[in-house]
Amino acid sequence: MPSASRSTQRRTPGRSVLVAKVVAAAVLLGLVLAFPALAPDAFVLSVGVVIASYAALAVAWNFVGGLTGYISLGHAAYSGLGGYATALLVTEAGVNPWLSMFAGAVLVGVAAVPIGIASLRVRGASFVIVSIALVLILLLVAQSWASVTGGSNGLRVPRPFGTDVLRPEQHERFFYMFVALTLVALVLWWVIDRSRLGAGLKAIREDEDKAQALGVPTFAYKLVVFIVSAFMTALAGGMYALWFGSLDPIFQFSILTGSYLVLMSLLGGVRSLLGPVVGAVIVGYAVEFFKAQYGDTQLHLVALGVLLALVVLFMPDGVIPWLTALVDRFKPGGTSIREVDAAQLAEERKALEEVKG
Fold it and tell me: Which DSSP letter does residue 96 get?
């Protein structure tokens, strides 16, 4: 009986924590969905759309960065390709805009196969350099191939809604669509994180050589999640193209975009589900605020650089893990050292055995 009572006491706090998380998530989602009604004007609403698009892109980036530990500064390549593929299917082939967005993402996913096969053979700084090189190559191609991409003059993208839909209403619709896309990406990330594939990816993140020695098909796992990440990034890029209505190679294939995504994910916490979303809200708001305050100056880049330095120095795991550890430390009986009981050790060993085979 004493053991049964102890097990009941262990389960009860877990249930209460789960209920608290569900309630908090519901409240947060309610506030997000109420944002268009609370926005004072169309400009603020458009900023909300930009931040929501950053959230979708950051979660898409986190499939690779968070699960495998591979840092890519070149994800603007896939969002840019998704945007141009969507625009060209609409303007040149006359395909429905929404079908074009999904078809463009599929094309980018297919293109990601050979890109992944080539780039995932290297690690660390070499992978970062390869990702940057891909963005620069696509930038040069988009600028030079003016007959297709419009070159430096840009490419106009027809609005998916009729002329009777005014700008504020269009912003509101796209805000909800970006939120929906972010939720889909979060659910997919959560499913992968708790699957056998996710266990293998996290083993790669911790020690790829050891994971391979244990029998994990490291290259195949990396390639799968790389394609998923490229597909989701292209979806967000295509949706952004339909919202913004114009594509410019310098903006679409920008190293800054990839840097923003890395900063957002690191700031929120790459190993947490909502980390990239939290980072997107903070960084996205900061970017738009400094652009509005200082116009065309580069001061916002300095501010973001300082923010990144603070994150690396004081919150290397991100805001969410830092806050979680801080709360746990002040709980009754809390400690700064992670305590693991026999049951948790058994579960971790079982997960490792499942990955192995």
Answer: -
Q: Which sign, positive or negative, has the C-alpha torsion 233, 237, 238, 239? A: positive
CB atoms within 10 A of CB 329: 10
Q: How far apart are the first and last CA of the chain?
A: 38
CA of 290: how far to CAs of 184, 253, 297, in Å?
30, 22, 9
pTM: 0.85
Query: Are the C-beta atoms of 269 and 321 separated by less than 8 Å?
Result: yes
- The CA distances from residue 180 to 53, 90, 333, in Å, are 11, 22, 40
From 199, 179, 136, select the one nearest 30 (Cα to Cα): 179
Nearest Cα residue to 71 out of 137, 138, 124: 124
Q: Tens digit of pLDDT for each residue in 159-204?
A: 898 778 888 899 999 999 999 999 999 999 999 999 999 999 999 9
